[in-house]
Design a protein that fits this description.
The chain is of the alpha/beta class and 312 residues long. It is built from ten helices and eleven strands. Strands 3, 4, 5, 6, 9, 10 and 11 form a seven-stranded mixed beta sheet that branches. A two-stranded antiparallel ribbon has the order 1-2.
């Protein structure tokens, strides 16, 4: 009989293209991944993977098995969801953590929606930055956490967790309403070379990404003020003391006295995910909340797609 856990390992190796990348994603040793694939090949009596210059790819037998594996995984998840609806979400607790801007923009509607269907589940919400709450999720203090990661950056708080993508959150430039660039349709980071900057505290992930983005544009940003409260950041911009890059999730309410513009040719962005621990330890309520959050995230994204110039 095929082992589902080893099927998961095979699928991860095929998706990542290497044993080492799969091991990193699963938080396994490379040896454990190799052994799992070898045992699966022994069970099937066929070579399932082949190495070439581009990495690892499935053999014909491996590709066939992976097609069936996707169906198996989907059926197992459906069974878990149905069982949770009958047994698992009639009570108990769900401990959720989120970074602040998602906590303000996404969590209220998600919590309200969840409680309508599952009023007997005790919900709690804590806030913190991804690098603070991800270790606590791994340690079992939370059942689910909203995290963000910047593409192409080694800082990955969600490493080793099961991450469900929710949305891409671009960072837009906020300018004083009377700024000389406020009427310009296409603003680049290079246009902001001589500006004073307002940003979150220097150690925060967003501030580090602002600095990286400006450095990629050829200069070091001149940071004059720092605040981890985006309402305060907006207030400082409105007062005319600097410009700022603010994630769209933190722009559900834009104060008077500023204008917000997307950057050209594209704005820096972060990927927002719902993270849970891997394996069978995920509480059923967390799986249901992930689906609720995905729906709320789609609504949030659709709102900004429908009104792309809502920040003028």
């Amino acid at each position: 009989m095929l082992n589902v856990s080893r099927l998961h390992v095979l699928a991860e190796v095929a998706q990542r293209g290497s044993f080492s990348a799969a091991a990193e994603s699963l938080s396994y040793t490379q040896s454990a991944v190799s052994q799992a694939v070898a045992r699966l090949e022994a069970e099937t009596g066929a070579a399932l993977l082949v190495r070439n210059r581009r990495g690892v790819r499935p053999t014909a037998a491996g590709a066939t098995l992976l097609e069936h594996a996707e169906l198996i995984f989907a059926q197992i998840e459906a069974a878990e969801t149905d069982l949770a609806a009958v047994l698992g979400i009639r009570g108990g607790r769900l401990r959720v953590a989120s970074f602040p801007s998602a906590g303000a923009a996404l969590m209220p509607l998600a919590i309200a929606t969840f409680r309508q269907s599952h009023p007997d589940v005790t919900l709690s919400l804590a806030e913190g930055e991804p690098e603070e709450i991800a270790p606590r999720l791994r340690a079992g203090e939370f059942d689910l956490a909203l995290l963000f990661e910047f593409p192409g950056v080694g800082e990955r708080p969600g490493r080793g967790l099961r991450n469900v993508p929710l949305l891409v959150d671009p960072m837009h430039v906020a300018l004083p309403a009377d700024h000389a660039l406020a009427g310009k349709q296409a603003i680049t980071l290079a246009d902001l070379r001589e500006e004073d900057w307002v940003q979150t505290s220097a150690a925060s992930p967003c501030a580090r990404h602002v600095v990286r983005s400006c450095q990629a544009a050829g200069y070091e940003p001149r940071v004059s003020f720092e605040s981890d409260d985006y309402e305060t950041v907006q207030g400082l911009v409105a007062a005319g003391v600097g410009v700022a890059l603010i994630p769209r999730l933190a722009l559900t309410r834009v104060r008077s006295g500023i204008v917000v513009r997307a950057l050209s040719p594209h704005s820096p962005s972060r990927r927002v995910v719902a993270a849970t621990i891997g394996g069978p330890g995920v509480v059923p309520a967390a799986k249901t909340m992930v689906k609720v959050l995905a729906d709320v995230a789609r609504q949030h994204t659709a709102l900004f797609v429908a009104e792309p110039v809502a920040f003028a």
